[in-house]
From TrEMBL:
SUPFAM superfamilies linked to this entry: Glyceraldehyde-3-phosphate dehydrogenase-like, C-terminal domain, NAD(P)-binding Rossmann-fold domains
Protein name as it appears in the record: Aspartate-semialdehyde dehydrogenase
Positions of substrate binding: Q155, R233
EC number: 1.2.1.11
Keyword match Nucleotide-binding: no
GO molecular function annotations of the record: aspartate-semialdehyde dehydrogenase activity; NAD binding; NADP binding; protein dimerization activity
Catalytic site: C128, H240
GO biological process, one term: diaminopimelate biosynthetic process
Keyword set includes Nucleus: no
Amino acid sequence: MKVAIVGASGAVGQEFLRVLDERNFPLDELVLFGSSRSAGRKYTFRGKQIEVKLLQHNDDFKGVDIAFTSAGAGTTKEFCETITKHGAVLIDNSSAYRMDADVPLVVPEVNPEDALNRPRNVIANPNCTTIQMVVALKAIENLSHIKRVHVATYQAASGAGAAAMDELYEQYRQVLANEPVTVEKFAYQLAFNLIPQIDVFTDNGYTKEEMKMFNETRKIMHSDIQVSAMCVRVPALRSHSESIWVETERPISPEEAREAFAKGEGLVLMDNPEKKEYPMPLFLAGKDPVYVGRIRKDLANENGLTFWIVGDQIKKGAALNAVQIAEYLIKVGNVK
Ligand SMILES: NC(=O)c1ccc[n+]([C@@H]2O[C@H](COP(=O)([O-])OP(=O)(O)OC[C@H]3O[C@@H](n4cnc5c(N)ncnc54)[C@H](OP(=O)(O)O)[C@@H]3O)[C@@H](O)[C@H]2O)c1
């Protein structure tokens, strides 16, 4: 098994190195790619130093079985043909092809089989906020069909990449040192602030990030579910949090939901208000599962339920989900 990571120097690329190692992913050779900014840099994987190659239009992907790409939508679109032409399965973290009808959009806890039907040999990893939400929604959908979702997200700085995380650290240092604050990766200073905009605005007043949650959830769940999202950048470093309200066809009690979450795949129930136990991003960075807490009846809707989730968006929201897709393909014998 030969595996490639495109965008190895990035926040998601670095997580791929950790996740592949942690999960003992069955690979014989790993190749790393980047732009001229990181080409030549070396990263250690399982005790061996691997040099980052410059991503180019050549035959470097000959013999590669699985290519994990996390280098932005533009890079995926430009290099898709180069990466897949010799037979590699491309599992992409960007938004390039997520909504294309001939590209499956996969979260292994929800729709693994979709990965088997990939006419272009491309599989898309959903948006990070959508991934962690659908893992939780699946547990409820198994009880009663979800008609509507309202969700407010609290998204960490690292969702905008490695440099954005560094910028947040630097902003806190600058504020405390009474220095002018550098603002490059976000529209405004994020330290000591909240920014109610992620990605650009669309014609209906929602941002692209919010529309991803609407469209991608429907595609992954094969459902007519309606999702109204409000996405907010918060000055947490890592792990996204989401406050979710669902309306189901029949009323679901908090007890029933708790039981479903407790046994739901990829979920951990953390819901003990008396002991002040609930998920928080500071303490769940680097963890695999999606954590669920604050489960209660919606006071404004007879068929409503509300809860709070936290998941590491670089892990389950990106690298881990992609690796789980690859593991599924290997398990069912759909890739070498
Ligand atoms: N961060 C998250 O939480 C998260 C979650 C889900 C999905 N994603 C998606 O994953 C992708 C990467 O995000 P990130 O957070 O890891 O960003 P990042 O930290 O900014 O890293 C970007 C990576 O892309 C590489 N790259 C850029 N242009 C390239 C090119 N022309 N050729 C080869 N490599 C190129 C960079 O390599 P150089 O250093 O060599 O330029 C770098 O390794 C994005 O599409 C993002 O939307 C991110």
